[in-house]
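Researcher: For the record, we're logging two predictions in this thread. I'll number them. Prediction 1 follows.
Model: Prediction 1, sequence and structure:
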Amino acid sequence: MLLLVRLPPPYSDWIFGKASPALELNRQTGMITFWQYGWLTGRLKSKKSVNFMEFIPYLQPLVSPTPTSAGCNIIFVHKDDKSLQFSSVGLANFTSIADGLAWWDFIQCYMDVAEPLPNAPTLEVCRHLDPTTAKHDLAIGRDPRYWRDMSEQEYQAAEQAMAETISRVYH
């Protein structure tokens, strides 16, 4: 087995498969795609796309014996096929229920093509590619490099303002 792990890329990819996504939220189609791979080979077993509107979110408080890992999780479960589900674990780390609710709101805004993309640093590089967002940004005069051109102090102030808004809106 050790020899198989150390094979050069063309052979290891052929045997184990390439690293691939397990989940995709596609804003343009409104679909969530799940990929399932074999546990040993890593080969694609199935691929299923489902409409985002068919998922029901559940807020799950996380409690542990130590106070350092308490928080919450959001689980999205398909209304008909309970095997189709994903959660915020690995995608976001929430320390409060308000953070979890804000993330759910963020996902809803992201998947709604009638609304512009959420104003987040990670989405700034693709805002101009989304027609609704590009039109909205042009109408309000938003700087295309709004997040990228911020100083460290401005970024921290914006981050603090968002945290205060989340605390005010969701508590």
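Researcher: Logged. Prediction 2.
Model: Prediction 2, sequence and structure:
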Amino acid sequence: MLKHFRTMSSVALLMMVFVSCKKEAVNETQQLEVTDEVVASISKLGFSTHNIMAAEGGYVVEGDIFIPSNELNRSLTGAIVRVGESEQYRTTNLVTGLPRVITVSVDSKLSSKYVTATDAALARYNAQNLTITFQRVASGGNIVLKSSPRNAQYLASAGFPTAQGNPHNSVLINNWYMDRNGWDGGTLVSVIAHEFGHCIGFRHTDYMDRSYSCGGGTANEGASTVGAVHIPGTPTTADPNSWMLACIGNGVDRPFNANDRTALSYLY
């Protein structure tokens, strides 16, 4: 069963069959409005304007990417990293101050399986001998894994690094949905590793066409203003197993493939 890192109801887009990595879809406090000005700003930043969702303090785009409202008018300069035809993309902002240890904590309200899965996800990164390493701490991590609101319409969510070069500070996990539907093991590890990928600056591998991993019609997420850089030695064909594909099925495990490792080494 394919999930789009975002939960939906069981009728639209395979409802509850696809789950996209959405950010805070339903704001429980103060809801912003998706105005024409907001849409224009998001488009200018190079993000899809399809199904923009207001969340506390910003907006969710492309199924799982949180943009703070104060970032809407920021000019982007930089490059996108591509791996093959379904390419590996990065954001303009990356984690800086390298080499660097990024601490991660798991909220005590989450069960032990999320601690175990987080440790496994961090081990995948640390095995790559990058200039960033991850270390789990008891509390107060640079990135905190915590439960989403109970009525969240996403499977998991995370944002991009800050302009100051820090990783995004949280991953929200829809444990309410995952526990009810048996998301566990390598799939849970892959979902958490995927969200950490966003936190350090990776976009979806199939950014230019999410139908590649999600099925359905072509879903080009829009032209970007930040350019593109092809990584030498990577293929020019599609990449079916990347850990940063937009959709994943329950029971699927996606450790880093060769192209993912090349992209990680290129950036870090």
